[in-house]
Amino acid sequence: MSNKEFPDVAEAREKVLRDALKPFADAADLYDPDEGDGSMADWADDGITIGHLRAARVALGPNDVEGDAGMDAVQEQHRK
Q1: Residue 6: alpha-carbon gap to chain centroid
Q2: Is the pTM here over 0.70, yes or no?
Q3: In angstroms, what CA-CA distances link 44 with 9, 48, 57, 73?
Q4: Which residue in 78, 72, 57, 62 sits closest to 48, CA to CA?
Q5: Please, what is the Cα angle at 52 between 24 and 8, to 5 degrees?
Q6: Residue 71 in contact with residue 63, Cβ under 8 Å?
Q7: Is 42 helix (H, G, I), strand (E, B) or coil?
Q8: At what angle do helices 69-79 and 50-60 cross, to 10 degrees?
Q9: Degrees (nearest 5) of the Cα angle 20, 41, 16?
Q10: What angle do CA 67, 71, 72 make, to 5 degrees?
Q11: pLDDT tens digit string along 23-53?
Q12: d(CA 59, CA 78)
């Protein structure tokens, strides 16, 4: 079963993923610029690290992140 056969399902899945990731990507803005703190825990002790927040922002892509931080994050992820 491919996404080409069920474009509505793929679009719905993408929306769910974007909606779920958006708060994490937005929260990553609180921790910019990257100061080598990617392994530090964020504000809550829930297992989510600053690195997780930044990865969520990258997953959303540069079109969903305001400013240059989104594009910078995507370019940084591709360098790794």
Answers
A1: 25
A2: no
A3: 34, 8, 18, 23
A4: 57
A5: 60
A6: no
A7: coil
A8: 100
A9: 5
A10: 100
A11: 888 888 888 889 998 898 877 666 788 888 8
A12: 12
Which helix (H) or strand (E) segment holds residue 67: the answer is none
Q: Is the pLDDT confidence value at 19 over 70?
A: yes
Query: 78 pLDDT exceeds 50?
Result: no
Element (H, E) at 63: none
Token couple for 74: 């995507």
Return the closest-CA partner of residue 27 out of 63, 68, 69, 76.
69
- Cα 9 from chain centroid? 21
CA–CA distance, 28 with 17 (Å, rounded to integer)? 17
> Which whole-number Å values give the CA distances from 68 to 3, 29, 30, 32, 61, in the listed order?
31, 11, 14, 11, 12
